[in-house]
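Troubleshooting: if your tokenizer reports a length mismatch, compare your output against this known-good record of 103 residues.
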Amino acid sequence: MASIVVACGSGVATSETVVGIIQKFFEEHKITGVDVEATDFKQLATQLPKYDLYVWIAKPTQEIQDICDKNGILDINGVNILTGNNDEDSYKKILWGLKRLKG
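Known-good structure output:
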């Protein structure tokens, strides 16, 4: 099963909202086999390596970007998903990342 983590400052309001939006997108497009979870930014560095995709609300720090690069974790702009502005780019990147995992 593929796994996506969404992180914001507290791991509660914004990240949970984005998780719900992504899950709804998956339901509407009949995409299964993807676990989407939220976490807070303080725990992200230790949690991130166990995920395949990272959806960020605040641009990744250098430490987080290094973890993504080292572990082949695709990072995706979640602000677009949250606001609905240019969200198709973020969804395309999620779908590309999921296809890459199956490849």
